[in-house]
Amino acid sequence: MRFKSYTQCLKLTLLSMAISLCVVCVSACNLSGEENSRGANGPRFADVENMTQLPEPFTRRPQLFSDLRLKPGQMLVPGSEFAKAWTGKSSYRKLANGMVFEIPAQYSVFWLNQYEEKKRSFDAQRLEDLVAESDVGFTFFMPDFIGWTPDTANGKLSLYDPDWVNGVRIEYRGLGEEKPDAPGPYPPNVEARMKKSVTDGSSMLFGMVHDLTCYASLTRPHDKPGVVEVGDGKSCIGVGSYGNPVFLKIYLPPFSSPATRYPHIFAYYYTPEYGGLYITWRVSTKHVARWREIDAFVWRALKEWVIVNPYVHSVR
């Protein structure tokens, strides 16, 4: 190529050098920014590009944000209290056994956490920042298994709301309660104790209730000779959708106590899976026919919301 003048040749040479310098600077800036964002304690969740960057024992990449699920035709009103509180950010919780859960925002306790120190505890974006807790909880509502919405968070909610599945807890307990005759709420052991109480006359077989074998306690008041009262709370044993044995305390009529104004189902049982956990949840007896679906939702969350699971090998 021939140049018309020395000046033209010099301009092209300087332009080429400037382009090369810019490329080097951009690469250096990107590298520096990446190192700064990762910090001294390893990669933040937001920096993870693929599963190979995740340290063991990650089982899936965090999602960070989740969509707000509303009823058909429902809209989020800008400026409303719920709209102000809603961020869409998942909350990250860590159990003492090393399991880390990513709870979608709509099912987390963000709406109930009005204390700033609690809110800050959910802002951790690094595994190293998470503090191990005794249990992990979330919430949802029947009949559609939906989380917090402008309707469910309308300020009128109470513990006696018949559609609120509250008190959902996954608690780490360790192994040992699955052994025969061990104390604790391991369903097979609970059933063995109930059968023994039937034999000694302190309980009775109440019958089958929606695929659950239920027992009722018997009391004989001292001031009522010959009278035997059947307890309102029935101890029920069944098998969940994931094949897990389940123990439920269900308040079923007829009620002998006038204090039983808000009959409910209370799940409280032990499983040796994941190193030994307690599973608990509570809802109105109104939904007794759907107990297996409710329990399955809790187990589905247990299995699908885990991003760090020390009890399985990563399948990247």
SSE layout and pairings?
Blueprint lengths: L5 H33 L42 H5 L5 E5 L4 E4 L12 H6 L10 E2 L1 E7 L22 E9 L14 H13 L3 E7 L2 E8 L9 E11 L5 E7 L12 E8 L5 E8 L6 H14 L1 E3 L8
Parallel strand pairs: 1-3
Antiparallel strand pairs: 1-2, 2-12, 4-5, 5-11, 6-7, 7-8, 8-9, 9-10, 10-11
Give a quick summary of the entry.
The protein has 316 residues and is of the alpha+beta class.
Describe this entry's structure for a reader.
With 316 residues, the chain is α+β, with helices and mostly antiparallel strands. It has a domain at 6-38. Helices cover 22% and strands 25% of the residues. The protein is built from five helices and twelve strands. A hairpin with a 5-residue loop joins strand 8 (229-239) and strand 9. The longest helix is centred in the N-terminal third of the chain and has 33 residues, at 6-38. The radius of gyration is 28 Å and the shape is globular. The two termini are 53 Å apart. Residues 18-43 have low confidence and may be disordered.
